[in-house]
Structure formats: structure tokens, C-alpha cells
Amino acid sequence: MPELPEVETTRRALAPLIGGQRIAELRIREPRLRWPIDPALVSTAAGHVIAGLERRGKYLLLELDEGCLLIHLGMSGSLRYLMHPETIRKHDHYDIELVGGAVVRYNDPRRFGCLKYTSDPASHPLLSALGPEPLGDDFGGDYLWRRSRGRQTSIKSFIMNGQIVVGVGNIYANEALFRAGIHPKRPAGRISRQRYQELALQIRAVLEDALESGGTTLRDFVGADGRPGYFRQSLAVYERDGQPCPRSGHPIRRAVIGQRASYYCPACQR
Fold first, then answer.
1. Who is most buried in 6, 22, 116, 266, counting CB within 10 A?
2. CA-CA distance, 107 to 52, in Å (whole number)?
3. Is the separation of the CB atoms in 231 and 213 below 8 Å?
């Protein structure tokens, strides 16, 4: 699933290419995504100028001169900018065609993404309850420590809760907890303020490292230029069960926490 670094990689690549451009047409070939695309979007989007492209959590906000298109990449989606549109491929579900002929094309084999319109993104039900951005000023160890008091849920489930902090998906939660030396099953309310300071630093660090590598390609993700991300080569524990820990040499273990595969070193993480 595209997580925060993959979505931010897409945003950074597309934003300078489409900012200030006018939408000629929204062409929908397959409306059956996670939520069916409203056919009224075809007329709603046409003619508007793209004011910018922002991100909130794992959502892309295509800001128009009036309103906003809310885009989610789902589990396997990608957006590509095509100066000269190529032959339509299987799973190319919609195009945002710009005046001049270039298109932003959405491909999604599993059709779990979404495309919606909103006049007020901050109050939209998909965004209004989200926690702070992990790379923003509102996030840090003190914040995590305060929100964790009295919670018995596992620390991994805690930091993956989008109402606590957005965008810390499964891959990066595993890697940040390893770097911070925290066992993924430890109750969130039983972690000290000092350890939360370290965890917040490592969440930021692992996300920034992934951004520098263009994200993590496990199966389907490609960036806006069609290229995969390369952070997978730097993963220390994710999907490495049975392999030696890069620090201690102990075999990495796998467990299921909150219905998600979790990977950790029993010697390094406590």
C-alpha cells in the first residue's frame, strides 16, 4: 500500500508540473473504486485551474481555484504525469486531462482508491479527525507521551492510528520501532517520555530516509514518473523474518499485531 512517503513522493513530482494548469476534461473509464466516482465530477472539474497539490496523511489534495479534488491511492494506485498520453493500459481508471494535452493518469489494479470533490477539505469526514503530520511541528515525543497515558493498546497499533498521527503505515512503524529499540507489542501507556522522544525522532528519520529514496516499492507502487521507490533496500526488519538482525545477529521474528504482520528483533527491542 502506498504510505506517506510514497504519497509525498508523488505530490512532490506532480506539483511543479500541474500547478497553474487548467483542467480540460476529467475522463472516467472505471468509476467503481472504493467509493464510486460521482459522475457529476466530470462537469465539476472541467475548466478549473489547479492552484496546487498538497497532502494530508495519505490523501492528495488537488486544490482548484474553487474547491478541491480529494485523491487516495488505495492499496495499489499510482498517478503518472504523461506529456504525450500513451496507449490506455489495463487498470487506467481515470485521466485528468490538462489544456494542452498532457494528462495525470490514475492506475489502480485493486480499485481501492478514491476520487472525491469537497469545498472544504478540513471539514471533510475523511480528513477532519486525522492526527498531526509526523513531519510537522505539532508532532513529537511529548505529544505521543501525553496521548498514550492509560492506553493498553500495543505501541505499534498506537502509532499506526491515524487519529494519533497520520501516515505511519505498517512498513515504517516496524522500521521506526526497531530503530528506537521498542518492542512492537509493548503497551503504549507503559513507555516512558524519554523513549517516546527517541521514537518520535526515529519516526521522522525513517520517513525522511524513505522520501530521499522515493518511497518503498513492494509490489505495485511507482512514482509520478513511473519509477519505483528504492527504500526497500534499506529495510532492517520488515519482511526479514528468520534473517539475522543487522545489529545483534539474532533472527528477526514475525508476529501479527492488530491483524498486521510485524517484524522485530527480540534482542534489540524491549
1. 6
2. 21
3. yes
Cα–Cα distance, 50 to 48 (Å, whole number): 7
Which residue among 55, 56, 58, 179 is the active-site one?
A: 58
Three-state DSSP class for residue 156: helix
Chain mean position to CA 255: 23
pLDDT (tens digit, 0 to 9) for every residue of the chain, 270 residues total? 678 988 999 999 999 999 999 999 999 999 999 999 999 999 999 999 999 999 999 999 999 999 999 999 999 999 999 999 889 999 999 999 999 999 999 999 999 999 999 999 999 999 999 999 999 999 999 999 999 999 999 999 999 999 999 999 999 999 999 999 999 999 999 999 999 999 999 999 999 999 988 655 434 434 455 454 445 567 999 999 999 999 999 999 999 999 999 999 999 999
Q: Which of 21, 39, 40 is nearest to 29 (CA)?
A: 39
Which one of 110, 116, 185, 260 is the catalytic residue? Answer: 260
Q: Is 260 part of the annotated catalytic residue set?
A: yes
Q: Domains in the chain, ordered, with CATH?
A: 4-123 (3.20.190.10), 141-264 (1.10.8.50)
Ramachandran angles phi, psi of 215, nearest 5°: 95, -175
Quick check: is 22 catalytic?
no
Residue 269 one-letter amino acid: Q
Q: Active site includes 3? A: yes
- pLDDT for 192-218, tens place per residue? 999 999 999 999 999 999 998 865 543
Residue 82 β-bridge partners? 103
CA nearest to 234, candidates 211, 266, 255, 254: 211
63 is catalytic: no
